[in-house]
DNA sequence: TCAAAAGTGTTGGACCTACACCCATGT
DNA sequence: ACATGGGTGTAGGTCCAACACTTTTGA
C-alpha cells in the first residue's frame, strides 16, 4: 500500500460511510433557594433545587426533563450549552462546567444519542424563568434523595455497595419521583458506579444524570470554591454557611466555619438590616484568593 | 397542533435530517517506569510516561498520537475504550475513567469529530507492547513539561495567568516537542482554561488533551488513591513514595509519607531482596480502606 | 423585654513537619 | 567496611472541633 498525502486523502474522504450518532448538550442547573419562613425573626429555610423543563415535543412529551439541545455543525460544547439555556430557559451568564458524557446505546428511543452533560450553578434571587422553544413549562424543583435500602458486600479487591435510592423532585405544583438502583464498586478504592432506573417520572435517563451531578456538586464543594457561584454578589456569612451546610449535608459550627472561609471573602461596608435581629455585615468573594493544595 | 403518542412519533422519526458528528473514544494511558540505574546500590530513577501509537493511516500518517477509535453503533464508551486499547495496543484490564469530551468544530481535518477522552493507569512492569490495527509503532514516552513564560494579569472578578508551555515526549528513539499557549482565567476562583497549540509534533489536538490529562492526574493524586493503579500487586513503600513524588512533583519525607499512607496499605510476608541494601517489606493495597473526607 | 442571630475568644487534642537516629544488607 | 536504603521515634507548631460567651437589633 502506497502512502498518500493528507490533502489528497482528504479530497477523497467520505465520512458518511461511518456510523455517526446524534450528540446533545444538556444543562443541569442548580440553585439554592428559600423554601419557607415561619417566624419573622427566623432565617428562611433553604434547599438545593434544580431547573427542569416540561417537554413540549415527542418523545416524552409533557414529561419534565433536564434542558438539552442537539449540537450544531459549527458550535462547540460551551456554545451549545449556553444556547440551550438561552433558548429553553432564557438564562445567561452562569457558571458552567462539563460533567460527563453519557453514551449507552439505548438511552434515547429515537436513535443513538450521546449526551454531554454540564453542571450550571446560579444564584436565582433575581431570575425570572420563561419557558422557551419546545418547552411547555419551566420550574425549579427541590431535590431530596433518600436511601431506601443499603447493602455492603465483599468482592475481589474491595467491596460493593448496593443502594436503592429514591430521588424526589418537588415544588408547589408537582412531585416527581424516581427510584434507582445504585451499585458502587470499590476495587483498590476505585469507584465504579452502575445505575439502573427502576421507575421514573422524568424523561430519558435523566434521573441517572441528576444523581451523578448532585454527587459531583457535593464532592467538589469540599475542595473547591464552586459554592460561591450559588451566592449573590454580596452575602452574609450565615447565608454562605447555610449553602455549605446544605451541600455538605451537615451542621457546621459558626466560629469554625468563619475561620475556614475567612481568606475567601472580603468584608464590604454594607449591612443586611431589618431582619428582626442584629444586622449582619455583607461580604463578597475575595477575587485574590488562591486555592491552597497540600 | 395535536399531540401524538411516542410510538406513533417514533414510527415517523427520521434522524437523518439532523446534523450528526463522528464520535471517537481516546485512551490516554499513563505509567511510571524506570529510566536508568547508575549504581548497583541505587534505586532506579523513575518517570511518568504515556502510551503513544504511530499512525498507520491518513490523516497524520506516520505521526505519533493518542490511541483512539470511532465509536460503533452498539457500543458504550467503556466498551469502545477497551476495544481501542485491545485493538491498538493489545492491553486489557486496566484502570480507566472518562476525562473530558472535546468538541471544537475544527479539531479534525476530516470532518466534525467529537472525542471522548479517557485516562488509563497501569503498572507496565510486565506489559509487552504490540502495535495493532492501523498502528505502525507503539511506545512509552517520558513526559516533561516546562513553562517557558508566565504572566499574571488582573481581570474582572479575578486574575488571568498566561503560560507558554513546552511539552516534551521522549524515549530512546524519538523526541516529540509541542509548544502550547495556556491561558488560565480565574473569575471568583472558577478556573477556565483556554489552550492554543503553537507548534506540535503530535497528531490532531492531542497535545491539548495530554496537558489536560496530566493536570487531572496530578490533581487527583492529592485527594484520591488513584496512584495505586500505577503500582504492581505488591510493592515497597519507597517505590510507592517515588510514584507520589513524581506526581506531586516534590520530595516527601519518608517517615511522614509512611504515616500518611499507613491506613491504605497492608504488610505482606514477602521481601524485596538482593538490592545491595537491607531487604524491604512488600505491601499491598488495603482493600478495606475507605477514603475519609473532611 | 427578649428571641434570634451576629460575632469573637479559648482550650485540648489531632495531625503535620522536620529532623535525628538506628538497622540490615550485599558487594 | 561502607554506601545505600529500610525503618522508627520525637519535639514543636499548626490547625481544627467543640464550646462558651458577649453584642446588637426590631417587634
**Which structural category do the helix and sheet elements of chain A fall into?**
alpha+beta
Could you tell me the number of beta strands of chain A?
A: 12
Q: Helix segment count of chain A?
A: 5
Low-confidence stretches of chain A: none
Q: What is the oligomeric state here?
A: homodimer
CATH superfamily of the domain at 22-146 and 204-223 in chain A: Nucleoside Triphosphate Pyrophosphohydrolase
CATH domain topology of the domain at 22-146 and 204-223 in chain A = Nucleoside Triphosphate Pyrophosphohydrolase
* Rg calculated over all Cα atoms of chain A: 22 Å
Please give the CATH architecture of the domain at 22-146 and 204-223 in chain A. Alpha-Beta Complex
The fraction of residues in strands of chain A falls at 35-45%
| Most extensive contact | A-B, 64 and 64 residues
Secondary-structure element pattern of chain A, one letter each: HEEEEHEEEEEEHHHEE
Q: What would you call the shape of chain A?
A: globular
Amino acid at each position: 500500500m502506497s502512502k498518500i498525502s493528507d490533502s489528497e486523502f482528504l479530497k477523497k474522504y467520505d465520512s458518511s460511510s461511518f456510523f455517526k450518532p446524534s450528540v446533545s448538550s444538556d444543562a443541569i442547573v442548580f440553585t439554592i433557594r428559600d423554601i419557607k419562613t415561619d417566624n419573622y425573626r427566623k432565617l428562611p429555610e433553604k434547599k438545593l433545587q434544580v431547573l427542569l423543563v416540561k417537554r413540549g415535543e415527542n418523545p416524552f412529551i409533557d414529561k419534565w426533563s433536564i434542558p438539552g439541545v442537539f449540537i450544531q455543525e459549527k458550535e462547540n460544547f460551551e456554545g451549545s450549552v449556553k444556547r440551550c439555556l438561552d433558548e429553553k430557559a432564557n438564562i445567561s451568564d452562569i457558571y458552567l462546567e462539563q460533567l460527563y458524557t453519557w453514551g449507552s446505546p439505548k438511552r434515547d428511543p429515537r436513535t443513538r444519542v450521546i449526551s454531554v452533560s454540564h453542571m450550571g450553578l446560579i444564584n436565582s434571587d433575581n431570575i425570572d424563568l420563561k419557558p422557551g422553544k419546545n418547552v411547555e413549562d419551566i420550574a425549579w424543583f427541590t431535590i431530596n434523595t433518600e436511601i431506601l435500602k443499603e447493602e455492603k458486600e465483599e468482592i475481589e479487591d474491595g467491596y460493593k455497595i448496593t443502594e436503592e435510592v429514591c430521588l424526589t423532585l418537588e415544588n408547589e405544583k408537582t412531585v416527581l419521583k424516581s427510584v434507582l438502583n445504585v451499585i458502587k464498586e470499590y476495587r483498590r478504592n476505585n469507584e465504579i458506579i452502575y445505575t439502573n432506573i427502576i421507575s421514573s417520572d422524568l424523561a430519558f435517563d435523566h434521573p441517572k444524570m441528576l444523581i451523578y451531578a448532585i454527587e459531583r456538586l457535593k464532592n467538589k464543594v469540599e475542595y473547591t470554591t464552586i459554592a460561591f457561584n450559588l451566592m449573590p454578589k454580596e452575602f452574609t456569612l450565615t447565608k454562605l454557611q447555610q449553602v455549605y451546610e446544605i451541600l455538605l449535608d451537615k451542621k457546621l459550627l459558626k466560629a469554625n466555619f468563619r475561620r475556614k472561609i475567612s481568606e475567601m471573602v472580603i468584608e464590604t461596608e454594607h449591612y443586611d438590616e431589618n431582619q428582626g435581629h442584629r444586622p449582619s455585615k455583607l461580604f463578597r468573594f475575595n477575587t485574590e484568593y488562591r486555592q491552597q493544595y497540600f
